[in-house]
Amino acid sequence: MDEFDLIHRITPRSLSHQEIEIGIGDDAAVYHTKNGYQEIVCVDTMVDGVHFLSSHSTPADIGYKALAVNISDIAAMGGFPKYYLVSIAVPFGWHASDMEAMYEEMSKLAKLYQMDLIGGDTVSTKGQMVITVTVIGEIKKGKACLRSHAQPGDVVFVTGELGSSAAGLSFLLEKTPIKNKAQAKYFINRHKRPTPRVEAGLICSRYHHVALNDISDGLASELNEIAEASRVSIDIYKDLIPVHSDLHTLHTRWEEWVLFGGEDFELVGSISGDQWEHFYQDCSVHRIPIYQIGRIHQSGDAQVFYHNGQDSVRLEKKGYNHFKQDR
Ligand SMILES: Nc1ncnc2c1ncn2[C@@H]1O[C@H](COP(=O)(O)OP(=O)(O)O)[C@@H](O)[C@H]1O
Ligand SMILES: Cc1ncc(C[n+]2csc(CCOP(=O)(O)OP(=O)(O)O)c2C)c(N)n1
Ligand SMILES: [Mg+2]
Ligand SMILES: [Mg+2]
Ligand SMILES: [Mg+2]
Fold first, then answer.
1. Does 44 contact ligand 2 (Cβ within 6 A)?
2. What else is known (predicted)?
3. Per residue in 216-237, pLDDT tens?
4. How many angstroms is it from 33 CA to the middle of ligand 2?
5. Of all protein residues, whose CA lies closest to atom 16 belonging to ligand 1?
6. Element containing residue 37 per DSSP (H, E)
């Protein structure tokens, strides 16, 4: 595999955005920015053995998820994605065809949002595959949905079922036995191919002072981030959290998947009570699932409470933590 040949092969033949002056092919990309908009930039890295297993995921799966998780971070700001850059450390065993399959899948996902690949970096590694994707998006000035926007009285919501990605991972890692192949396939797909909630994020950005976060590390962790950034407390109710109807049949510890599993890439956030009904209808019209799961409360210290019938427990900021895994 030749590096320059590879770059040539992955260079897009056409671009969706006229604002690009220089894409792939020079020392850096150059594009024009629009008046009245702000740019949003994020980057997330995925590592073989930590974020995926190359023995269980195809290059296409890996490429898809590396881009999707970054689009999800743009969605979690209420923005829309425009450009992406891909940096890869390629293990010696990989073939040009693997790389092409990976880029092809990213390009398919990018097309759904008219995103353009404008650069990246390619290196070899004696170690594991590492892929880092940067996404640049846009949002109307002052409309970003910040973690610090939650206010006492707000309704807390999520955009879809939680725990399904963790269930899929559990099947993949053979921690949960597969009894029904079609069922396992559904959950594994939720894990490998999350759909970033771009449209939901865009709707959120049209309302006043919405707080948002995407669920990568787990509901408990993301809610604690909102509580800390907004200096509020949060109450959520077990019975209101949307989960797949089969989830509880898969494992006795399914509730841990819901609260701490992560990688569902749904959005969790809050909106004022007086906007809630209108917002809910707006989402319904656009066929975006939205569920109220709790309320924001005034508080001196930022805490998250999980109510289960008579019981209520404090949800700690635990979930996926890179430096607290068994190594
Ligand atoms: N190594 C790093 N250097 C600088 N900033 C970082 C680094 N790692 C994370 N951040 C920043 O810390 C914040 C939280 O990161 P992270 O938890 O990865 O966000 P997310 O879960 O939305 O991907 C983000 O603003 C991110 O840009
Ligand atoms: C092989 C494997 N083991 C464990 C996991 C679970 N896992 C890995 S990283 C992660 C959290 C999300 O990744 P992170 O890099 O923290 O994303 P960010 O919060 O920055 O978006 C989870 C739940 C996985 N996806 N694959
Ligand atoms: Mg991150
Ligand atoms: Mg995020
Ligand atoms: Mg992220």
1. yes
2. Reaction mechanism of ThiL seems to utilize a direct, inline transfer of the gamma-phosphate of ATP to TMP rather than a phosphorylated enzyme intermediate.
3. 999 999 999 999 999 999 999 9
4. 33
5. 44
6. strand 37-47
Query: pLDDT grade, residue 327 (50/70/90)?
Result: very low
Q: What's the fold here for domain 147-314?
A: Phosphoribosyl-aminoimidazole Synthetase; Chain A, domain 2 (3.90.650)
Q: What is the C-alpha to C-alpha distance for residues 167 and 165, in angstroms, rounded to an integer?
A: 5
CB 217 less than 6 A from any atom of ligand 2: yes
For ligand 1, mutation pick of 216, 228, 323 (most atoms within 8 Å of CB): 216
Range(s) within the chain of domains with CATH label 3.90.650.10: 147-314
Q: Which pLDDT score is estimated for 319? A: 84
User: Do the beta carbons of residue 6 and residue 123 sit within 8 Å?
Assistant: no
Residue-wise pLDDT tens digits, 75-88: 999 999 999 999 99
CATH architecture of 3-140: 2-Layer Sandwich (3.30)
Q: Helix, strand, or coil here: 261?
A: helix
Residue-wise pLDDT tens digits, 48-96: 999 999 999 999 999 999 999 999 999 999 999 999 999 999 999 899 9
44 C-alpha to center of ligand 3: Å? 5
Question: Residue 148: exposed, middle, or buried by beta-carbon count in 10 A (0-12, 13-18, 19+)?
Answer: middle
Query: From the CA of 213, how far away is ligand 5's center (Å)?
Result: 9
Taking the C-alpha atoms of residue 60 and residue 66, their distance in angstroms, rounded to an integer, is 10
CA of 209 to the centre of ligand 4 (A): 18
ipTM score of complex: 0.96
